[in-house]
Amino acid sequence: MITGATDGIGAAVARALVSRGDHVVALGTNPRKGEALVGEADRAPGSLEFVQADLSLVSTNRRVVDRILDANPAIDGLVLCARYFRTYRRETAEGFEDNFALFYLSRLLFSYGLRPALEKTERPVIVNVAGPGHDTPIAWDDLQSTRRYDGVNAMFMTGRLDDLLGVTFAERHGDGPVRYVLFHPGTTSTGFVGEFDPPTAMYIEQQKAMAKPATEVVPPIVRLLDDPPAEPLTAFNMHTRMSVRSGLFSPKDAARLAELTDELLARVDG
């Protein structure tokens, strides 16, 4: 199961898994790219199902999770890649800042929502491609960047929230079979999907020229899917293991975030 599967790392992982005979459920917003992936899979040993969905909406996440559970009672691995950069702040129809909704809330809803299906397989794992270990401070009184929005800072801060999501998930379900892995791909030439102002667009083009191809990120992610770590929570920068014992992975902060998140999600119907 891969979110953000029609571009960059998500698409590269999907192609690799299908090419070796796996069945992949690929989620994305672009139907043209989704259909192209399905067409490629038709010529491969494996198979691929494309699910079009706007995962920035909590209600859509809940609906898609239910649909996936109905069709796939057992899931070996979940790879979370969906992200969309915005230079300017935008709120979803449900009132959440777009980056916070897609890069954090969606990953939380899929992590917990698909847990029943993951627990039915032998060595299930969640790989959250979120860039763990960044030291951007968390603005606890402004998690959705309402005061002084900066797209890069909002993205990095939301990545910090994903780190804490992993901490809480492992604390709650570490005695079960699901392993939670936070994964940093480093600078990678992904799809770079988003809405950019001219200076940011120029910077992105420079990054594309210097970054490694998404295919180089596939081997460490596939290795984690095939052979998950023994510990409930781990973090990796490509092949290198990172410590999850620092203050960046504070259980106290994770509990604080979980409580705030529960309050926000309780306001959304569906």
Automatic annotation (TrEMBL):
<dbReference type="InterPro" id="IPR036291">
    <property type="entry name" value="NAD(P)-bd_dom_sf"/>
</dbReference>
<dbReference type="InterPro" id="IPR052228">
    <property type="entry name" value="Sec_Metab_Biosynth_Oxidored"/>
</dbReference>
<dbReference type="Pfam" id="PF00106">
    <property type="entry name" value="adh_short"/>
</dbReference>
<keyword id="KW-0560">Oxidoreductase</keyword>
<dbReference type="InterPro" id="IPR002347">
    <property type="entry name" value="SDR_fam"/>
</dbReference>
<protein>
    <submittedName>
        <fullName>NAD(P)-dependent dehydrogenase (Short-subunit alcohol dehydrogenase family)</fullName>
    </submittedName>
</protein>
<dbReference type="GO" id="GO:0016491">
    <property type="term" value="F:oxidoreductase activity"/>
</dbReference>
